[in-house]
């Protein structure tokens, strides 16, 4: 099939509600410290249930109304803790992704449904089967956001515990995805099943896969991760990268780096879509948008959250500090985490060089006369796209046109209404610019993303 | 207590298995049909070894397309992670607003073990012991969030009250789980646990952990005997035996229309049916389980007789031809039972626990004031 390329590079959009639950934090923008993950503003009176199906239904229907490629549910496998106590400041808890997505398949028709499934504490056979089932039940809309658990902390919830070091985690993930594909390939499109056998360093499995080839052949594979290993794996094996770089410069650098890696695997740049996770704030005027963004930041960084963020850098109890007062005068504990992996909080954030950050923050606070809370707000991840709908549409288009991204995974601040305004006000402007679709091109997620179906020649028995 | 003879409300459930069907629409149709019959719940079987979709996924897909009926997928416990399993079942309860159940089963074959490559096949009794641990830890994880743990207290900046979240710190023979769950306590507190209590260690696991026990038996006398045993064991485990519903399993073939049940298919009951006041034949023991073949009217008689004899709290019916037999079951058998005032005509409640007349379990951590 030959596809005529549209004159303007097309933007892909996806939605990520509940970005709070990663076992390791991620931030929008390029903050020096990935702050606690508090995108979701729960204190707003418009914020409704974070767990009831009705909330997910509303968000998914809105995303589909906006012709989004997919709806991504993040996931963590252990509640974050701080100083041995469960983190209580941000939205805590979420439903299991694949189960919610199967239910959402009943109330949507075209929207892609992407589940975060960890490759460290799951097994290929079961995961491949659940994803293939989702692909069948949704008529070809399933995707898998492959993540790896980083710590033994998470392992405490699983039979085999925390057993993989950093290098092995990535090796296991790569083998896991390869094994899942072998299972999906063990049925021909004609419905002939053949036994599979996979023997590698991490898996030694054999038998018959019980799910016939699903509508997409292979559910779409999304990769979330940033290290060199993660990028290499994305280049070799992923269909979409869930990227963390939300600024123009960093985005372009990441984009160029990952796309460059594709050739080594005989793949074309279009075979892999790069979609950073970003936030947005709209206003009728630029000033109003800035004001709303500031309000959101103020809600996200509560006084308690500000102290918590500092504690994660300083590595000591700072509960006696006044969030409206000055930063601590003393230096951070250079090695506050006697974990097997230094620098890693339990399901929390990774702080590379606490002293350097503390120094920078103190300078910032001194220069602008900022309190602890104001410093944290100023220094940690800011909203990625803030402005009038016109300005935001123009900026999104520029990112995509200049190869800083192929599209965006939008993380709204509010559940369940956080996408409404974007879909009502920005999507039509993107369409006017010719940079965004006016209807779904097909029925499967692969067709939305412009991805070829996986080859089937190899499958003929 | 253990001598209680049932005769409470009649409970009916049906299997909606359609081997090798992967299309959501036909499951939705079947479950809606069962819901029209006001059945307590539908089940969908699963193993890792036989062709078929993931059962929990199918019933999650069905949930938004139905309103009241309970949804009970089989989820096995041998090769899965208890933490994932409890989260998925709790999520089914969230997406169905309190209609989830979980039919626990084990995987005994080496073939299934090879699909995972983590352990060898083990004897059924060992695996049922482990299934009990999985049931136990699942309940703890469901309780690891107290109701009302989400407080959204703007003044203190707290989304949850961490004193209402609890580490499970579960140490079993087969695995340990730290907890708490990632999923807040589901609407029913505990989704309904179903266990086939016909054999061996499974019967003890059922007596201890199940809300619904399934029995493959061919006579009311046999059913009554196992029922008494189950209730007694439940009591030994410190349970109120009235919190255990016991359903007889029947494979039903209603292909013969209005014809009476064939005498050949009713050996054990048949000789006694006159004295029990029922019509039609009893089930015949087959490899697939006790099987009834005949018309919907005689089936209604059989159900009524067993229930009125206090042998069981109800029936779990597996149609041999899902579409045809479920239709006859709902429009024939159920309609007749309703007409006789033996079965409900509408759902008075909205959760599966309410259909079954089971209360919402107290939270073990809230009750004992367990520490976090
Ligand atoms: C943008 C992005 C999103 C992520 N989302 C999740 C998530 O939802 N759940 C999770 O457990 N890990 C998530 N992760 C963590 C990654 O799977 C991985 O553990 C982490 O990035 C460390 O691996 P790396 O050093 O290769 O990047 C995410 C990472 C990134 C960069």
From TrEMBL, chain A:
Q: Which residues bind FMN?
A: 116, 227
Going by the UniProt record, its keywords in alphabetical order are: Flavoprotein, FMN, Monooxygenase, Oxidoreductase
Pfam family of the protein (one):
Bac_luciferase
Q: Which residues form the Luciferase-like domain?
A: 43-402
List the Gene3D superfamilies hit by this protein, alphabetically: Luciferase-like domain (3.20.20.30)
Give the CDD domains listed for this entry: Nitrilotriacetate_monoxgenase (cd01095)
Which residue stretches belong to region Disordered? 14-41, 321-343
Extract the GO molecular function terms from the UniProt entry: monooxygenase activity; oxidoreductase activity, acting on paired donors, with incorporation or reduction of molecular oxygen
Keyword check for Oxidoreductase: yes
Similarity remark: Belongs to the NtaA/SnaA/DszA monooxygenase family.
Q: What is this protein called?
A: FMNH2-utilizing oxygenase
Tell me the organism. Answer: Streptomyces avermitilis (strain ATCC 31267 / DSM 46492 / JCM 5070 / NBRC 14893 / NCIMB 12804 / NRRL 8165 / MA-4680)
From TrEMBL, chain B:
Domain (Luciferase-like) ranges = 19-262
Q: What molecular function does GO assign, one term?
A: monooxygenase activity
Q: Which UniProt keywords apply?
A: Flavoprotein, FMN, Monooxygenase, Oxidoreductase
Gene3D superfamilies annotated for this entry? Answer: Luciferase-like domain
* InterPro entries per record: Diverse_substr_monoxygenases (IPR051260), Luciferase-like_dom (IPR011251), Luciferase-like_sf (IPR036661), NTA_MOA (IPR016215)
Locate the residues binding FMN.
46, 74
Pfam families for this protein? Bac_luciferase
Protein family: Belongs to the NtaA/SnaA/DszA monooxygenase family.
Q: What is the official name of this protein in its record?
A: FMNH2-utilizing oxygenase
Q: Can you name the source organism?
A: Streptomyces avermitilis (strain ATCC 31267 / DSM 46492 / JCM 5070 / NBRC 14893 / NCIMB 12804 / NRRL 8165 / MA-4680)
Q: What is the lineage of its organism?
A: Bacteria, Bacillati, Actinomycetota, Actinomycetes, Kitasatosporales
């Amino acid at each position: 099939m030959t596809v005529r390329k549209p004159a303007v590079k097309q933007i892909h959009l996806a939605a990520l509600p509940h970005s709070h639950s990663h076992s390791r934090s991620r931030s929008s923008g390029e903050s020096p410290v990935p702050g606690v993950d508090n995108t979701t503003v729960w204190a707003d009176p418009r914020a409704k249930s974070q767990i009831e199906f009705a909330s997910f239904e509303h968000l998914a229907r809105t995303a589909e109304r906006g012709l989004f490629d997919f709806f991504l549910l993040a996931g963590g496998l252990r509640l974050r803790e701080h100083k041995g106590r469960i983190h209580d400041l941000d939205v805590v808890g979420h439903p299991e992704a694949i189960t919610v997505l199967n239910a959402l398949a009943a109330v949507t028709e075209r929207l892609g449904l992407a589940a975060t499934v960890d490759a460290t504490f799951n097994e290929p056979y079961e995961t491949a089967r659940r994803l293939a089932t989702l692909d069948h039940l949704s008529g070809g809309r399933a995707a898998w956001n492959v993540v790896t658990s980083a710590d033994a902390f998470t392992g405490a919830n699983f039979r085999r515990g925390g057993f993989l070091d950093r290098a092995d985690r990535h090796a296991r993930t790569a083998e896991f995805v390869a094994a899942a594909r072998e299972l999906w390939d063990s049925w021909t499109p004609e419905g002939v099943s053949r036994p599979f056998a996979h023997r590698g360093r991490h898996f030694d499995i054999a038998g018959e896969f019980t799910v016939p080839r699903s509508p997409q052949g292979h559910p779409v594979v999304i990769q979330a991760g940033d290290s060199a290993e993660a990028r290499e794996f994305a280049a070799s094996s992923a269909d979409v990268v869930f990227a963390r770089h939300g600024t123009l410069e960093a985005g372009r650098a990441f984009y160029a780096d990952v796309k460059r890696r594709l050739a080594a695997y005989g793949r074309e740049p279009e075979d892999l879509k790069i979609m950073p996770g970003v936030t947005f704030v709209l206003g009728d005027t630029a000033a109003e948008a800035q004001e709303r963004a500031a309000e959101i930041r103020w809600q996200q960084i509560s006084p308690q959250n500000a102290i918590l963020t500092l504690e994660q850098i300083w590595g000591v109890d700072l509960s006696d500090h006044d969030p409206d007062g000055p930063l601590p005068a003393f230096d951070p504990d250079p090695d506050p985490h006697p974990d097997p992996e230094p620098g890693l909080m339990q399901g929390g954030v990774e702080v590379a060089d606490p002293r350097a950050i503390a120094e920078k923050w103190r300078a910032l606070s001194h220069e602008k006369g900022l309190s602890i809370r104001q410093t944290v707000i100023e220094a940690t991840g800011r909203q990625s796209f803030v402005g009038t709908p016109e300005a935001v549409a123009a900026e999104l288009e520029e990112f995509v046109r200049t190869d800083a991204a192929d599209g965006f995974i939008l993380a709204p601040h509010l559940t369940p209404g956080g996408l409404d305004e974007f879909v009502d006000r920005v999507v039509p402007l993107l369409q006017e610019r010719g940079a965004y679709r006016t209807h779904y091109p097909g029925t499967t997620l692969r067709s939305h993303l412009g991805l070829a179906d996986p080859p089937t020649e190899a499958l003929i028995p | 207590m253990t001598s209680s003879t049932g005769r409470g409300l009649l409970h009916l459930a049906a299997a909606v298995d359609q081997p090798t069907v992967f299309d959501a629409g036909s499951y939705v149709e079947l479950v809606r049909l069962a819901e029209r019959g006001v059945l307590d719940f539908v089940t969908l079987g699963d193993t890792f070894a036989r062709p078929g979709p993931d059962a929990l996924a199918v019933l999650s897909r069905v949930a938004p397309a139905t309103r009241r009926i309970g949804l009970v997928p089989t989820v096995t416990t041998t090769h899965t992670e208890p933490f994932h399993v409890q989260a998925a079942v709790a999520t089914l309860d969230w997406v169905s607003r309190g209609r989830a159940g979980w039919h626990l089963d084990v995987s005994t074959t080496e073939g299934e073990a090879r699909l995972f490559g983590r352990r060898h096949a083990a004897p059924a009794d060992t695996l049922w012991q482990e299934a009990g641990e999985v049931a136990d830890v699942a309940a703890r994880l469901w309780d690891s969030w107290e109701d009302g743990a989400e407080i959204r207290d703007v003044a203190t900046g707290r989304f949850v009250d961490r004193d209402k979240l609890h580490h499970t710190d579960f140490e079993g023979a087969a695995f340990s789980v730290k907890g708490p769950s990632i999923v807040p306590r589901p609407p029913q507190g505990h989704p309904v646990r179903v266990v086939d209590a016909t054999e061996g260690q499974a019967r003890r696991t059922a007596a201890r952990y199940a809300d619904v026990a399934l029995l493959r038996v061919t006579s009311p006398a046999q059913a009554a005997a196992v029922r008494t045993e189950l209730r007694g064991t439940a009591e030994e485990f410190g349970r109120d035996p009235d919190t255990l519903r016991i359903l007889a399993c029947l494979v039903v073939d209603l292909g013969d229309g209005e014809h009476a049940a064939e005498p050949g298919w009713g050996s054990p009951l048949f000789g006694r049916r006159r004295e029990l006041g029922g019509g039609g034949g009893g089930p015949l023991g087959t490899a697939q389980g006790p099987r009834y073949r005949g018309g919907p009217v005689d089936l209604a008689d059989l159900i009524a007789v067993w229930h009125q004899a206090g042998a069981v709290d109800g029936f779990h019916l597996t149609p041999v031809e899902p579409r045809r037999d479920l239709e006859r079951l709902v429009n024939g058998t159920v309609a007749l039972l309703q007409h006789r005032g033996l079965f409900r005509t509408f759902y008075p409640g909205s959760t599966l626990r309410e259909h079954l007349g089971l209360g919402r379990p107290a939270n073990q951590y809230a009750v004992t004031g367990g520490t976090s």
